[in-house]
Write a structure and sequence with these properties.
Helix content is about 0%, strand content about 45%. It has no helices and eleven strands.
Amino acid sequence: MTQYKGRIDLRVEGNKFNLSHVKAGGTMPGFLLFKATWLLSEDQEKHWVVSGDMAEDWKEVYIEFIAGGTGRVRLEFRGCYFDDLDTNHHEVWLDDVSLEGGDLINGSFEETDADGGVAGWSGITAVNRGDVKARTGARCVLVWHDEPAVQSISVAAGKRYKVSAYFQPNIIKY
């Protein structure tokens, strides 16, 4: 059986400060909050991950943090890592990304840039074309572990932020 998990990564750009008071939640069952243990121990407070399981409908996951410095945090929205990524991408749909405490560009994915891409985002290679119903609006985007939707945000020292997103598995029905 194919597994589907949505995931949000927070990574301090340039490793300039830590993230603290990190917590997570949402409507995704089985969500996990963890540090990026694959990094050196001194860098783990600068990269946090929340992930959760999915059913067939849209589910939310969020992560909150306090910035330990002023700078930028990279937000990455993806599917989780699985050992069979070379044959099965475990693709998930992403919609309704929001940020409390700061500015996020085009969290609904409705706006396009001059090249026809999704305004404000990098890494996005697939947008629904009527085959998948977006949670709100007309558009949602397809992501997987190796092709996340990415946006960097500005943060201020000592300020709390909450990043949330909705995910749905890309289940092919025959």
